[in-house]
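Risk register update: the risk of archive-format incompatibility is retired. Evidence:
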Amino acid sequence: MNNKFTKFILLGILLCLIVIAIKPTNNQMASANPLPNPNFSLTNAGEEVIQLAPNRIAVKGNYGSSFSGTILVFDFDSNTKKFNYAGSMNYMDYFNNASKYGIPTNSSNK
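Archived output:
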């Protein structure tokens, strides 16, 4: 009796594995806020794309890239399906000279 029970359990496990292997899969990634498909490619692997809002991205230049220390902001136009340049900021200058932008620092408190 124990042998029949073991065969029954193993057969059930085998059937479950077959169903899992044959089951169709959904290749689309689920995302709460999907980023529109951009119509450009980055030429430098050192640059990062950061999603700021549902239709806004920033491209951050890393050290050694052509725009090191700069963030470029783009808005997605759903009509043309393209990104439009919105502005830029030199974050290295912002961090290195914070008092220039009205941010108090320890050296400015003295």
